[in-house]
Amino acid sequence: RRVLLLGEGNFSFAAALGRAQDTHVVATCYESEEEATGRGGAARSIRRLRDSGAEVVFSVDCTKLKEHFSPGKREFDRIYFNFPHCGRKAGVVKNRQLLARFFHSCSEVLAQQGDVHVALCNGQGGTPADQPRREWHNSWQIVAVAAGAGFILSDVHPFKAENIDGYKCTGYRSQDKSFCVEGALNHIFTRSTAPLCFTPVSCETQLGSQKVSFQVPQVLVDKINRGFLEVNSSHPVRTIKEKLSAGLSQAFPLQNISSCLPLLHQGHPSGVCHSSIFWITPGEAPSTEEMSQGLADAVLFCHFGQDTDKNVQEGCPVPKQFYLRPSLLPHAQAIIKKRAFSPGTLQVLSGPVFRKCRISPHSMPVFHEMLVVLAVSRGTENSCTQMLVDNIKTTLNSLHQGVSGVKPSISLQEATSSGTELNDFAAFEWQLGEIQHFLWVGTEAEPSGSCVGVIRTAPDEFKSRELVVVSASLNLDLLAMLLCGISDWRMLWTWDRRFLRQFPEGELRLFKSFSLYPPSYVHDVSFWVPDGEEFDEVAFHTLARKVSGEMVVSIQLRDSFQQPGTGRRSLCYRVTFQSCDRALGCREAAEMQLHLREEIQQHLGVTLR
What we know:
With 609 residues, the chain is α+β, with helices and mostly antiparallel strands. Helix content is 26%, strand content 25%.
């Protein structure tokens, strides 16, 4: 490994590291050789380094690393910068600026899979790992400045000077004096994945006898056709689905009918709020001849946008109205209507479903649903439902104990329209039809639990004299979050390979975040709402998702004001930008906020204040 050390004072840290096998050390300092060797013990450490084959370089500026190393010698596997400081009595602002330039410089000489180690005195970093923690404005804000250069904090641990043989800190206020390193922390940074490029994506699907192509809504571009449930996937969502299927198959014959379920539905979903639906207006797919002539861009693709939503909201008829499926329930009902099932056999459907919703860590515009349908003899529905639920509970208990060693709290709660506060998943399921029970799962990390499934019997129109149909709908993404300790749904959809590396095929584990203490940026936006119109918050949240690429973690209404005399209404929202898996700098967040202001004015008809 090639290891670069910056800002060495007396070179004692480099000398200790130089003894490591299979490590080529390049030790540097900012001072000239004459100044550096004048420090106590420096000459001896430099001699030891050179004797071991290490390189020692003087007068190296940590903010201009590319200038000091030729192109063939820039690929460092690790960079150390212990206790950086501008010198003398420099304040926090100057030291932040130093770190910002340092991280930008590191990005030019660090190997793609390399890491950067920065040791800071207790409290300087400004992260929750500091004890006691300084106020944010009085810290060096190391995670935020690193994010500006494309780095994320992947680990932090105590800097134990006593365990480093021969190490002696020096450089207090640019002098040959030691300083206190008790409680110091070593911050380990890695490269973040690059920002997503939102290229328009079109999908093709069969609708009856006609093949149509549709343009995927931009907010879903990075989530369509990800293949999480495919055979070769090691994603925890698929593992949970397979484990549940295996558990259920021990109690019931099982038939999997998830293949080739269309993504689009036609018409208007009964009882469902239209603002929660991704509406689509499809067109015919390009012919082979058109494709060969390069005319694919000229054909009518499926369109998604505010015009379609506005027509739906205003009750205007829209020709050939289609929407992305918000549930697998209609597919199950079609099977029931056709009597295409065997009584006593579990029919298992699974796949992604799409629902517009407000932004929160547990509210997702797309998730994987597992729908289990069981037809039983009339009079046995209660016992069979209990058997089905008991089997699901047993499997989830086993899965969670295998991951954390702690038994989860799993309960079946009677469905009522009031009382228990429902999450977005349960609230939407309620719109789809009558529910008998909610399935709640609580863990040590989330004792209050969350609704992860609903149990219902088919409406009278699907019943027969002999049979009653029972179904269980499970949110696999929520289950993965609860069982694996994932606090933000966006992490399930990350493109960073470090996520899936934590889940070998067929194995569930507690997730360890590779992006610690991500910085957040708060911006307010206020505007006048059009007279006589109700402001659509779900559309606002969906627009924020699209503009930021899912970088908005929270939107909160801060103030509502009605102007005396005119009656005009003004709303003020607080928008918090934060990524869970990649670097997000303050400048990028500010650009997103400006773009969001433009978009809400253009698409939601508001007047900015």
